[in-house]
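anyone seen this seq b4? input:
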Amino acid sequence: MWHNFGEAVLKELAGHSPCWAKAGPPLQDGKRAQATRERRHQIHDLLSKGVGLLECARRLNLALNTVRRYAAVVPTVASSRLVQVASALA
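predicted toks r here
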């Protein structure tokens, strides 16, 4: 019984995965999330001005890998506001 239930859940999740991929994970709204958004915007602002990754890391006092990680994330309109994803099971 549990095996069939597990397979049914996986099948349902796989069917709705394109919907969830478009929306992305729901964003948090708190002090840490706000600091992360501000840091990402600072990094992308510097990069748009032509500043290199290493210089961004030096100016913002961050590790180079941290700057690379934030630089790899493309800023979107949805990242600046809280996105609510409706549950498929509701």
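Residues 2-23 form the longest helix (22 residues). Residues 78-86 have pLDDT under 50 and may be disordered. kinda curious what u guys think
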